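Recall that a protein's primary structure is simply its ordered list of amino acids. Everything else, from secondary elements to tertiary packing, is in principle encoded there. The following example makes that idea concrete.
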Amino acid sequence: MDPLWATVAEFWWIGPSVIGAGAAGWFGLRQERAARLRRIELDAARGELKAARRDAASARVAVRVARTELARVQAERATGRASSADTAAARKNLERTQREAKAAAATVRVRRAHVDAARTALPAAATDPAALPLARLMAAHDEITARWMAYETDPARLIAFPAMTDAREPLTAHFLAAQRAARELRPASPQARITATQFTAYRDAVLRETRAFEAAEADAWRRARAAGDMPSTPREGDPDAAAPSALSQWSTAAQDFAQGLAQTVIARSADAIARAAAARGAAGSRPASPPPADAGAAPPDPTAPGDARPTPPRDTRPPWPIPSRTRSTPRP
């Protein structure tokens, strides 16, 4: 038998084993990358919490050092080797470090809340890739860019809001600088392999760009209102886009209320007409009532049997004298 074929027959299992190991490794790496993309926001929040705890520990140490320094200066002042200015400076340093320690402790609480929020919002394994944290952050970045491009490409907005395209404006210049910084930190794709630190830096850059854009846009719209160059129909996302929607909601609510009130009035009127018609029909079907008795006659005696009821005599006495309207003069 040929030695080559003998070797292949002897070690044929190596090929499938290598292929299987490569497939398992590739599948494991893919699962690890997907898990990293899902947990990157949580990992970034945990990293920020760890850094905040380190800062809080350093602030507490600084408070102890400042308190010890104040005690030393007070002791030296008692012996005459330190002045009141040194004591005041040491006390002021202690107050500053205490404020910094309180701020660091508050930052730790905020970062802990961020970790809880990120853990709650952790996407599942079968989540759409567009709903992953990095993809959502990049979509928010693209939305800010699209809103800014609307002021760059629309001729009507170029005329109404010239400050949004003027780099000499301080707010616009600040936005352009933040936009450039966010663009430099932007990953190549939503599936790019980045660390939690890089994700945090990119997220903070996008947040700064968003705030700068909103400040510049609000100032540009304020100037347009003062100049009377407001667009007739604001787009979605504009500062004044919420006003028409609120007005339409109020008008819709008013129309619904008026329609409901009219329907209620019509229903009650129809009910009243139906009751009146029913009462009129019942009155027409009843027998004729006896004629009314004479007004001057006395009421019948209920104790008298049958029709033999005695009629009391009428009072025929004249009425008492009516006084005259003119005053009578007494005779002498």
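The radius of gyration is 47 Å. The CA atoms of residues 151 and 157 lie 5 Å apart.
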